[in-house]
Amino acid sequence: MRKRILIALLVFLTATTMVFAQGVAEPKAKSNSLEIFSWWTAGGEADGLQAMVDVFNKKYPDIEIINATVAGGAGTNAKAVLATRMQGGNPPDAFQVHAGHELIDTWVVADFMEPITFILEDNGWMDKFPADVIDIISYKGEVYSIPVNIHRSNVMWYSPSLFKKFNLKVPNTIEEFFKVAEVFKANGIPALALGDNESWTETHLLESVILANTGAEKYRSLWQGKVSWNDSQVRKGLSDYAKMMAYTNRDHAALANMDAAGYVAEGKAAMNVMGDWAAGYYYSQGFKQGLDWDWAPAPGTKGNFIMLSDSFGLAKNAPNRDNVIKWLALCASKEGQDAFNPIKGSIPSRIDGDRSKYDAYLNAAMNDFATNAIVPSVAHGAAISEPWLTRINDIMSVFTTELNVDKAMKEFQAASDRYAPKN
Ligand code: GAL
Fold this sequence. Notes:
By secondary structure, the chain is α/β, with parallel strands linked by helices. The protein has helices spanning 2-25, 45-59, 78-87, 101-108, 117-122, 131-136, 160-165, 174-186, 200-222, 232-244, 257-265, 277-285, 321-332, 334-344, 360-371, 386-402, 405-419, and strands spanning 32-38, 63-69, 94-98, 138-139, 142-143, 145-147, 151-152, 155-158, 271-273, 294-297, 304-308, 310-314, 373-376. Helix 9 (200-222) packs antiparallel against helix 10 and helix 16 runs antiparallel to helix 17. The site of beta-D-galactopyranose (GAL) has 13 residues, from loops.
């Protein structure tokens, strides 16, 4: 009996010493984890995410963050990996998903997600987001994801030094675009940088060119299947796009979207139409606004804001549910958004972001978001369902080489007939 007590005492003492020794010698081991799944690997995007992770780590030092990224712009590869994991019952804890059709059609209607309205309600944040934003993350009265930002798609980045060198005015309209493009071409400079090693960048350009021709209302209706692709303004959009291809850089098919944005800042091309993650990329590379790059609304789209939003949701059987809820609350908070967005090149989805933390470009984007006509991005999951978008991207990659407007128009119409909502 005495021997047993002695052994127990010894075990107790050893264990206490070990715990004590551990406590002194090394940091306490993290007790649990949180996997964050995204496609943010490029400069600016990865940095923005890290800034938010840093805030999280400070608040919850015991939770180990597993940063799971799958490279590829606009989620080209990540979305496929996510689908396999979700369908295999192996969801990540928190995952990046575009607000709008991508979230609702792909995941919510298919019953993969938990409603998370309570996160906004418990924190008293319901009215801290514009009603339109709440609308695109909601289904049947419940909120299903937390929008961490608002990105603008219809931005034209340009090289101030090239415009200066040839004494040209930054184009406001598509016609003005072609005029300056001719001058650059005559001087051996690609007017329009394109990086379409992934075909979403073609769709990205197309959405701006179509909007420039149709205006906001018809643009919206087109993506609801209520306007024919044979409409004269829509057709004009397609032929403008085809015409633009004569002014692009020769190596466009080998470049990624950020490379093309980089061409502008390096003075290798005059203009590039890309979302404002390009600004995040410029910040990360130390390129300066006004010197290396500047911006204007994509030609013909002034007064319109093509929006998209990155959000995070809660899958039904997320392994670390409590930690996801903590992460989502951070994504919805002013603190989290103001850590992430000034680096990411996006504006907060909340209405009360601290403007002093944002540069001149992002402040201008905030002004435009508050005053412009807002339309949803096609290329980034806001306007249409994933199967429709996949088809559009496929059509675009062939159209960009063949430049056959009639053929593309018929294919776009067939896609609309097949995928547009029927009601
Ligand atoms: C978008 C996404 C942005 C950015 C971009 C480039 O779809 O919303 O945050 O990552 O793709 O990859």
